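Lecture notes, unit on binding sites. The following record was shown on slide 14. It pairs a sequence with heme C.
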Amino acid sequence: MLALSTTAGIALAIAGGLIAAAAVAGLALRQRTRETGPDIPEALRPGPSDAALETPLLQKLQGWSVVMLAFFVVWIPVTWIFEPSTNLNQEHELKELAVDRGARSVLPFSEENQLGVGCVRCHGPELTGGIIPLGNGFTTAPNLTNVCGGPSAGHAAIYSTDDIYQVISEGRPPSMPSWSIRFEGALDDQQINDIVLYLVELSSEDESVPFEQNVCLNEDASEAALENPGSNPRDP
Ligand code: HEC
């Protein structure tokens, strides 16, 4: 189990609070019933007989062990049965959070968006591509919303998710900067991973890149793209 969801955490905290309150209340009530007895000092009160001490206590303990056993007999299989879906839900939740962080980090840095690094400066406000100055002329920054289309969508050097990761990490001179701290950039592995997950999501939602051509999600498409690399439209 990676982490409790917020609702599960709150439910656990409330359950814990209730049990603690019940225990305190139980103790307080017990104290009170004792006080209502005759006013004899504790040490002078007649003690319970051996039989009263042994038999009921033994039965009580055995009773509790049956209750405990019944609890575990139910609890362990139920947990075991639901474990895969719990894990899957958590994985989805973590991925959604990562995509969300990725979406925010492609935007420019601002007080409200402190994750921002500003890929949109070059790749266009919707990441659909842009024109940027280079030397005395201009060059194009490619459309990133269909980057998983690989060569067939005009991304000549993108054959898989790893390639997207690599371009962002190492950059592509002269215009695409390197972003990884391993290559004098400003982003750590997790931040780049978040951005890559966001780009894969952009390419996949609403089938903007059909699954048959999606080199990020479809291994067959990735292999086909490698065999038929196409040429980079930005190559001279
Ligand atoms: C200074 C402008 C600039 C910025 C900022 C920038 N890029 Fe780029 N990017 C480019 C250019 C230009 C290319 C094309 C390089 C080439 O193919 O020669 C490119 C290429 C890419 C590619 C490869 C696409 C393909 O078709 O091969 C990816 C992926 C990419 N950028 C992602 C990003 C991400 C993510 C960010 C933000 C972290 C970012 N870029 C920020 C200019 C920029």
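Take-home: The CA atoms of residues 33 and 115 lie 61 Å apart.
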